[in-house]
N-acetyltransferase domain-containing protein (Triangularia setosa), 217 residues
Amino acid sequence: MPLQLRPALPSDTEACGVITEHAFSTNVLINHISGGTTTSVDAKQFNIHFWTQVIASSFQDANCHLDIVEDISLSPPIVVGLAKWVFVPENSPLPGLVPLEMELSKEVMQNMTDPELGVTFFGDQHARHEKYMGSKSHCYLALIATRPDYRGFGAGRMLMESGVQKVDEEGYKAYLEASPEGKPLFEKFGFRVEQVAEYLDGRYLECSMIRDTKKTE
């Protein structure tokens, strides 16, 4: 299957939002928080709207780099995966899965099926990020997603290869939060688990992972 990686454009925003919603539809915790386990069309559309906003914010941040992978066997090509990397300068506010300027708005809170856990989860993510990275310069993998029907065809590997190459060129450490499904891929690219947090009575595990600075020739 011919896949091609390129930097994302603003015109890719909607497709990336849809892909991210599809990718997280298999995530136990996100489903629980967002209502993804329901059959509500409204819930699904809101989740797509939310992720589209997250993607759109990438183009407003000079420190953010968004890559996509396309299936170029189709005409026109379709987006099948994406990765959002944020290069965090020293002594800068820490970014999260939800961009700082978005926070958890009233609109988002009203559409959560478990807002208390949502606030706890995103707050915990930020606390762990601060614990391990603090004020240090580093790169944060804020988001990586692949269309479920394209998993296993190399899109995730392409996105990670491109991302860690940029990280190494900058001489940065890298940090991410991983689901159990994503952890093996990240370990292949040098990330190690620093902490495992349990949610939903142990039904979901979130891994805080760090990749040390690599020297490039």
Summary: The beta strands are 3-7, 64-71, 78-88, 138-146, 173-178, 192-199, 204-211.
